């Protein structure tokens, strides 16, 4: 114990008391208090903004990934010469036996134009069997409406049971809206690859009743995709009872590369495959770059707030020079002085970081309500599904990422206190008292 002072062991109550006193500035120290307040608010807003933005970017990527993988297969297997696969049932059975494969779905897929009395739009037509379409979670949800499930009980969910025998097609909600179609309406599908004539290829034109309207929640799919029973698609695209491709679903889509060689071995010669990462690499790479850049840019907010802590503490040290000199003459060590000012700055950084975490958490839990409120106040949807693909604003907080943000903020805040506290400890009490 130092003479004339209470217990001054490292981080003793005496040091905490002094740090707390310096945080509560008197009237003549009001400017220092304002700087401390802005430092606190800067760190709070920086941490909250970084948590919210990273959560939204994570949610955006996760939702897109869920929608894309719920709509497309993880791996597509097809003939290298793009000819129809005739023995697709045997091939699908072999692919389904590969370890890690959960499902193999034969498909007929082709581009066409969807026409109605009100509009003409491009469309991706996908022929699929009733048994397989019932296994697609992105389509079989509470928003599904069908013409062949009219007698459902209130607690029953619509399904595609009866799709093969319906003789019609399933279209997305936004396509139905664009063409002003409902269940029972008819839509015309036009393909340029029709029969050969003396003047060239004639377009293939057929009318189909709309027997189902689905909602994936991703505007690109809800507006441009038509599902057709597999036998009807084989006839329409003239695949001679074959299919264009077999879509394979696996246990771990993020590690889809580990399945490519076993799938190629099971598929045999003359076959080729592409993964969902190959088909969407540009899109998801752009999202990854955007996420990393946003993290670096928003970290600068926290860094600026930490620099405010430095300036505030330096001014506090200059203002408290006489106090420091008196404490030193009473027996306080340089370590004691350094820890007092370290605690003063660290308290600002810790309070701002914890406050930012709480604010960020509250915003992440209410992002959709906030979006709806902004849309209601401004009259403009800030998250237009036509631009952002998704129908609502997602936010997924990653625990590891959030902890990293909190620790980074605390580290920057603590680092900002080192120089001012070191400068306070180096203050010569004789020089400080000479001019008092």
Mean pLDDT: 80
Can you tell me the number of structural domains? 2
* Low-confidence segments: none
**Beta-strand content estimate:** 15-25%
Q: Structural class of the helix and strand makeup? A: alpha+beta
SSE run: HHEHEEHEHEHEEEEHEHEHEHHHHHHH
Put simply, the count of helices is: 16
Report how far the terminal alpha carbons are from each other: 29 Å
Would you report the number of β strands?
A: 12
Shape, principal axes of CA atoms: elongated
Radius of gyration: 33 Å
Biggest sheet features? 6 strands, mixed, barrel
Itemize the secondary structure elements and their pairings.
Blueprint: H1 13-23, H2 30-71, E1 75-79, H3 88-96, E2 101-115, E3 120-128, H4 130-133, E4 145-146, H5 163-166, E5 169-172, H6 173-179, E6 186-191, E7 196-197, E8 200-201, E9 204-214, H7 219-224, E10 225-229, H8 230-236, E11 245-250, H9 260-267, E12 271-275, H10 276-319, H11 321-329, H12 334-365, H13 367-378, H14 385-388, H15 399-425, H16 429-434
